[in-house]
Design goal:
Bound molecules: cobalamin
Number of strands: 8
Distance between the termini: 64 Å
Radius of gyration: 19 Å
Number of helices: 2
Helix content: 10-25%
Order of helices and strands: HEEHEEEEEE
Low-confidence stretches: 5-9
Strand order of the largest sheet: 2-1-8-6-7
Structural class: alpha+beta
CATH class: Mainly Beta
CATH topology: Ferric Hydroxamate Uptake Protein, Chain A, domain 1
Mean pLDDT: 90
Strand content: 35-45%
Amino acid sequence: MALTVILLLSSLLLLPGLLANNSEIGKEFPVKLIVQDTIHLTPDQILQTTIPYRAILLGAMRKISEADPENFRFEIREDTYYGPFLVSVNGVAGNDTAHTYWELLKEPNTPLKQGVGCYIPEPNETIILRFTTWD
Ligand code: B12
């Protein structure tokens, strides 16, 4: 009896969450990417795509690249602990000796606290891939 009550209560508690996620199934959400090179000062590149519910940034980058590899390509290196590290964009690669790297930010100017494999863009968010230096 007690078990039945517990099961009933817990399924009632879970129901709203399940229903909320169901409304997102199959939907696509827009994400914008700006490629910015503060070292070679090439013009910014603005790219757009759509991704499924709570998809990762790397997924958006792959989709853009697969749709238009002439315009946007990138390389990653797998880190044992933190997953994919963005090494190069359109042939421009970070360099440890020169202290250059591709920084990840969200507009207007907030560095991401995760890498491309962990970060989940919000719908309509603009992500900046910025080639820059570290101190
Ligand atoms: C130094 C450092 C960097 C340097 C590394 C270059 C270098 N040659 O030193 C630079 C400035 C390039 C860097 C960049 C980034 N970093 Co960093 N970085 C660190 C830091 C402070 C120390 C790492 C270290 O030297 N460990 C000791 C050495 C001996 O171990 P190691 O395994 O060889 O270290 C390597 C990895 O840590 C790797 N690395 C560093 N940062 C990141 C981030 C990601 C996502 C990946 C996959 C690998 C990686 O580079 C190190 C040197 O080769 C750590 C925080 C900490 N206190 O540990 C954050 C840390 C690892 N970085 C982090 C982040 C978020 C980033 C960025 C995404 C920030 C951004 N907004 O752009 C970018 C990566 C972007 C990309 N291109 O993919 C997070 C990762 C969290 C997560 N789960 O994703 C950490 C934990 C800081 C935090 N926010 O708490 N980082």
